[in-house]
Design a protein that fits this description.
Blueprint: E1 6-9, H1 17-47, H2 54-78, H3 85-119, H4 121-127, H5 130-153, E2 172-175, H6 178-220, H7 224-266, H8 273-297, H9 299-309
Antiparallel strand pairs: 1-2
C-alpha cells in the first residue's frame, strides 16, 4: 500500500556538550556567511545602476532566495530539539522546499541567459531584455511557491505518530514515501540538472570555437569592430566559466542528498536522523558559496565591495559610479 508523504519529527538524539558546541559553531558560521554574502550581492546589484542588466537581475533574485534560505530556514533547521509543534514544522519545511526550488530554477534560467549570450550574441540584447528577465524571475518564484504549497498540503499530521509527553519533540525532518521521493528528486534536481549540464556543454563548445576565431583575428590583425567583438566574447566566456563553477558547486552540494533520496526509493535502508540532517546542511552550503564565486570571478563585485567598505556608497550619486570591467585574457 502506498504511503503518503509525511512530516517526521525525529527522536531526540543525545550528544555531549562539546559536540553540541562544535555543531552549533559550524552551523552558525554557515548561516552567517550565507546571510552576509547574499545580502552584499543584493545591496551591490540594487544600488549600482551600471549593474542593472537582465543577467544581474536574475543573480539578484537568486541572492534573495539564498538570503531568505539563510535567514528564515537555516536557523530553525539548526535546532536539535524541536519545541514549536507540528504546524510550524510544516511551514518551515514548506519554506525550505520553496526557497531551495527557487534557487534551482534561477540557476536554470541563468544558464539559459548565458546560452543566449554566448551562442546568439547578435540577438541577445533584443531577446533577453529586462522584461524577459522579469518573466523568468516570476516563473521561478511562482513555480517554487506552488510546488512548496503542494508538498505542504500533502504532509500528514503527526497525531498518534509520537509520544508528546516530553516537551522536546526532536528535530523537524521531512520524510517522503518512495514514490514522492522519486518524483521530487526527478522534478527538482535531475531533470533541471541534466538540462543545465546540456546547456553548459553547448556553451563550452561554442565558446571554444569563438576563442579560436579570436586567436586567428589577433594573428592577422584586428579591425576596430573585431576588437570590440573580441572583448565582448571574452566577457561572455568569463561569465560562462563562472556559470560552470556555479553549476558545479550546486551539483557537489546537493547531489549527495538527492542521490541518497533516489537510492532510498528502491532500497529502504534505515539511517540516523543525523545523516539526513548532514546531507541537508551540505546542500545548504550552496547558498553560502554563490556570493564568494562572484567575489573571486567578477571585478565589479570586488570594486563595489571596496566602495561599500570605504563608505563611498553614502555619497551623493554613488549609484552612478562607473566601474570599468577588466577583461582577463584566457
Amino acid at each position: 500500500m502506498h504511503r503518503i508523504t509525511i512530516l517526521g519529527i525525529s527522536e531526540k538524539q543525545m550528544y555531549s556538550l562539546t559536540i553540541h558546541i562544535i555543531i552549533y559553531v559550524i552551523l552558525c558560521t554557515i548561516i552567517t556567511f550565507t546571510i552576509s554574502g547574499n545580502l552584499l550581492v543584493i545591496i551591490i546589484i540594487s544600488h549600482f545602476r551600471q549593474l542593472h542588466t537582465p543577467t544581474n537581475f536574475l543573480t539578484l533574485s537568486l541572492a534573495v532566495a539564498d538570503f531568505l534560505l539563510g535567514g528564515i530556514v537555516m536557523p530553525p533547521s539548526m535546532i536539535r530539539c524541536w519545541y514549536f509543534g507540528d504546524l510550524f514544522c510544516k511551514i518551515h519545511v514548506s519554506l525550505d522546499i520553496t526557497l531551495s526550488t527557487a534557487s534551482l530554477i534561477h540557476l536554470l534560467f541563468i544558464s539559459i541567459d548565458r546560452y543566449c549570450a554566448v551562442c546568439y550574441p547578435l540577438h541577445y540584447q533584443t531577446k533577453i531584455t529586462s522584461c524577459a528577465a522579469g518573466i523568468m524571475i516570476a516563473i521561478s518564484w511562482i513555480f517554487a511557491g506552488i510546488y512548496g504549497c503542494f508538498m505542504c498540503l500533502n504532509i500528514q499530521g503527526l497525531d498518534g505518530l509520537q509520544n508528546h509527553k516530553s516537551q522536546c519533540l526532536g528535530g523537524c525532518l521531512y520524510i517522503s514515501s518512495p514514490l514522492s521521493g522519486l518524483v521530487s528528486s526527478l522534478l527538482c534536481f535531475y531533470f533541471p540538472g541534466f538540462i543545465m549540464l546540456g546547456i553548459y556543454t553547448n556553451i563550452f563548445i561554442v565558446a571554444s570555437r569563438q576563442a579560436k576565431i579570436i586567436k586567428q583575428t589577433e594573428q592577422r590583425g584586428q579591425t576596430a569592430k573585431e576588437k570590440k567583438m573580441a572583448v565582448s566574447m571574452k566577457q561572455e566566456k568569463k561569465a560562462a566559466r563562472t556559470l560552470g563553477i556555479t553549476i558545479g558547486c550546486f551539483f557537489i552540494c546537493w547531489l549527495p542528498f538527492f542521490l541518497y533520496s533516489f537510492i532510498n526509493t528502491f532500497v529502504q535502508c534505515q539511517t540516523s536522523a543525523f545523516v539526513t540532517e548532514l546531507l541537508y546542511w551540505f546542500g545548504y552550503l550552496n547558498s553560502a558559496f554563490n556570493p564568494f564565486i562572484y567575489a573571486f570571478m567578477f571585478n565589479w563585485f570586488r570594486k563595489s565591495f571596496q566602495i561599500i567598505l570605504y563608505g563611498k556608497i553614502f555619497k551623493p550619486n554613488s549609484s552612478r559610479i562607473n566601474r570599468t570591467t577588466e577583461v582577463e585574457a584566457e
